[in-house]
Amino acid sequence: MRRRLPLLLPASMLTLLLAAGCGDACLKLADQICSCQPDQASQANCQQRARDEEGVFNVRKQDEQFCQHLLDSNSCDCKKLDTPEGRQACGTSISLAPPQGGN
Q: Which H or E run contains 26?
């Protein structure tokens, strides 16, 4: 359970910001990410948030393609989402500071 705690915020963010408004590929991606939640109640809540927000965002073709790419490349499986690198590859990491320049 403790190792899944870092997934709660990224899954929520992706669900609400990316997957919620997208078409089938993005909803599938949201479901895949939600399946990484530690229990069925958390999974169901995550999936419900995705569906509740479905009509909020305009879906662009590139959004759908991005979600499909993440699905095809298996970038968002649960084991990968357990690592900072995996969350970054899935597009669910938060950068709190800008990357360091070439100083």
A: helix 24-34
97 phi, psi to nearest 5 deg: -135, 150
**Whole-angstrom Cα distance, residue 77 to residue 42?**
17
Structure tokens at 55: 């009509």
One-letter amino acid for residue 72 of the chain: D
Q: Please calculate the CA angle 31-51-37 and round it to the nearest 5 degrees.
A: 35
- Rounded to two decimals, the pTM is 0.67
Tell me if 34 sits within 8 A of 16, measured CB to CB.
no
Q: What's the rounded Cα separation, in Å, for the pair 77 and 29? A: 10
Distance of CA 58 to the CA centre of its chain: 17
Share of the chain above pLDDT 90, in %: 42
